[in-house]
Every structure is written in C-alpha cells, then in structure tokens.
Amino acid sequence: MHELSATEQLLNLTLEHARQARAVRVLKINLVLGDLSSFVAESIRFCFDILSKGTNAENAFLSISRKPARVRCEKCKDEFTPREMNWACPRCNGFIEEVVSGREFYVESIEVE
Amino acid sequence: MKKVEVITSILNANDLVAQENQGLLRNHHILGVNLMASPGAGKTSLILQTAKALAGRLRIGVIEGDLASCIDADRVASADIPVIQINTGGECHLDALTVQKAIKALPLPELDILFIENVGNLICPVEFQLGEKIRVVIASVPEGDDKPYKYPGIFTAVDVVILNKMDLTPYVDFSLDAMRQGVRTLNQRAKMFELSCRSGEGIAAWTEWLESQVHAEKK
Q1: CB proximity A47 to B under 8 Å
Q2: Residues of A in contact with B127 (CB under 8 A)
Q3: What is the rounded distance in angstroms from the CA atom of residue B47 to the CA atom of residue B81?
Q4: All residues at 6 or more sequence positions from B85 whose CB lies less than 8 Å from its CB, including other chains
Q5: Domain residue spans in chain B?
Q6: Chain A stretch 76-95, residues whose beta carbon is closer than 8 A to a beta carbon of chain B
Q7: Going residue by residue through chain A (113 aa), what tens digit of pLDDT does each one get?
Q8: Cystine design at B151: which of A4, B122, B140, B199 (Cβ 3.0–4.6 Å)?
Q9: DSSP label at B192?
Q10: What is the CATH number of domain B12-218?
Q11: What is the per-residue pLDDT across B112-170, written as a single tens digit (0 to 9) for each?
Q12: What is the dihedral of CA B68, B71, B77, B81, to 10 degrees?
C-alpha cells in the first residue's frame, strides 16, 4: 500500500499549482496513469478523499486517464501493446527494445476557480 | 473556471532527492546498486557472496530495507561490512529520502560499491528512484519461470536480471529456456546471470562484470 504517500505528493503538487494560480478552489485534477505503473486508481481516489479534507482541493474531481503499455520491437521497430503472456512482436516475433509508454504517473493539469 | 497546466510527475519530489543521492555517490566514485526481488529470492545472500568474492579488491557498503527487524543488517555486519538498516514500518519500498539519510551515515570515502537492498517486493520498488546507477532484479528458480510476464513493470525496467538458486533446478518444475526467453523478450538490454548463492556456481561471472562497472565509474 503505497498510494497514501503518493497521493500526499499528488495533493501537495495540486495545492502548490493552485496557490501559484491564486485559485481558491480546485475543481478537477487531470491525472495520467500508465498501465505498467503499480499505482491503483481506486486507492488513489480513496486516499485523496481523506487527505484533501479541509484543503482547497476538497471535493475536487479526480479524472484518471489510463495509458496503455506500448513497447517497440527491436527488429522491425513497430510499436505495439503487449498481451498478457505474449510480449513478442505480433508482426515479426521480435523482442522488445524499449517501453515507449505505460509508466506514466503525472498531473497533466488542474481546473481551478 | 481556469485550467492550469501542470505536467509534473507525482514522484517528482522523490526523483529530485534521488538525483542528489546520485551526485553524492558519484562524488565518491561509488557504484550504487539497487537490489530488488521478492522476499526470500536471495538478496542478502547475494550481497554476502559478492562481498566474499570481491574481498581485498573492492570495498562494499550496504543499506538494508525491511518492514521490520535488523536480521539482515546483523548478517551483513557479522561479515564486517558497513551496513545501515532502514525499517520502513509499513511502506513496501524504499524511497530516496530515507536512503539519503542512510547514505550520509556510511563511511563513503571507504566504499567502492553501495548495495541498496530494497524491501522484498516485485511491484512498487521500481517506481522509486533511489540514486542508483544499476537496477537489479533477482528471480529465483523455485518462484517459477513465468515471473517476467507476471511482473513486466520490473522486468522491463532493470539493467540486470539475476537468476538465483540454480542448484535447485533438478528438484522443481522450472524451465530455464522459458525463463531466458521471458527475460529476453521483455528486456533485450538486460544482462542475465544464472548463479547459486548456496553453491557459489556462477558468482564469478557476476562479480567480474560488477568489477568492470566499478572501474568504469572511477574513470
């Protein structure tokens, strides 16, 4: 269970940007979460509700957009989303050169008033 | 309503401290190695075997991360290796800040390698940079040959995969070919070492490679 400390950082980041924008209230937080990340969306929501009480971000809506894992084949350089037990390239059966996306865990923007 | 662009990683605060740690180690020409594995895969045993193999050639320091107890640190300390134990309480991984405190408590000018033994867990340690140069995952034969596919997050993110407990292959249902195939498919770049901390088989190849990395760090 590491969502509590991560959500604390998420809240700090949000409040800091809201303060800089001279906002009195955060309405929405647009979060990006990759499928290869180990953070669990539901736990983040749960922790956020508790941690944000009494702050300018209380009741803010957490919009979590998921990013699928994308990897690049070392042979044909094709990018694809791996399936459960089959990570070889569906086109040429090659191995993976690099994870292109799927590890994201960042705040894209916040909506404030 | 106003939209404010943020585009900042939530783990940014951790990553910044990790960069400081990296600088600290670089200034002392110390190779930082983050050892990750499930509980019981052989993290502490690998440290002890590595220290034994490199005795008189390279000086090793250790940071031990566990939820509780000093069992691992005591094992390491009894081999006369400088060690700092971190008890994380409930946290399932080490983070850069707790590691920084431990780094500062070690005799840095006397070290060539710093092993950071992470909390036994294949999931979240990979999310938290600690300031290491090399990321290692240890898998062990009794855990099964399907681990790379079940934990792609960690197997795609490491520089080295160590397969420990090779001496047990005759006794368990484990396909070495399937394991090799899994590691190669997910992470073409990763170096793989097959060894047994118990019998000592394969340790030399790993320590020779590690030594070459230490010398590269000193240049």
Answers
A1: no
A2: 2, 37-39, 105
A3: 10
A4: B64, B66, B70, B72, B73
A5: 12-218
A6: 82, 84-85, 87-88, 95
A7: 688 889 999 999 999 999 999 999 999 999 999 999 999 999 999 999 999 999 999 999 999 999 999 999 999 999 999 987 778 999 999 999 999 999 999 999 999 99
A8: B122
A9: E
A10: 3.40.50.300
A11: 999 999 999 999 999 999 999 999 999 999 999 999 999 999 999 999 999 999 999 99
A12: -70
What pTM, to 2 d.p., does this model score? Answer: 0.93
Parse chain A into domains and list their residue ranges: 3-68+102-112
Per the structure block, which two tokens stand in for B27? 């200034």
- A39 lies within 8 A of chain B by CB: yes
Task: Quote the CA–CA distance of B22 and B33 in Å, as a whole number.
Answer: 11
**Taking CB atoms and an 8 Å limit, are B11 and A105 in contact across chains?**
yes
Q: Do A36 and B156 touch (CB under 8 A)?
A: yes
CB A17 within 8 A of CB B6: yes
- Domain formed by A3-68+102-112, architecture: 2-Layer Sandwich (3.30)
Taking any CB pair shorter than 8 Å as contact, residues of chain B touching chain A are 1-14, 90-93, 95, 123-124, 126-127, 146, 149, 152-153, 156-157, 184-189
> Hey, of A87, A98, A105, which one would you mutate to test binding to chain B, going by the most B CBs within 10 A of its CB?
A87
Q: Given an 8 Å threshold on Cβ–Cβ distance, is B10 in contact with A88?
A: no
pLDDT at B217: 84
The one-letter code for the residue type at B216 is A
Nearest CA to CA, how far is B13 from chain A (Å)? 8
**Max Cα separation, chain B?**
66
The rounded distance, in Å, linking the Cα atoms of B36 and B190 is 14
Which of A31, A69, A111 has the CB atom closest to B1's CB atom?
A111
Give me the helices (H) in chain B, please: 12-27, 43-54, 71-77, 96-104, 147-150, 152-155, 176-186, 203-218
Contact B8 A106 (CB under 8 A): yes
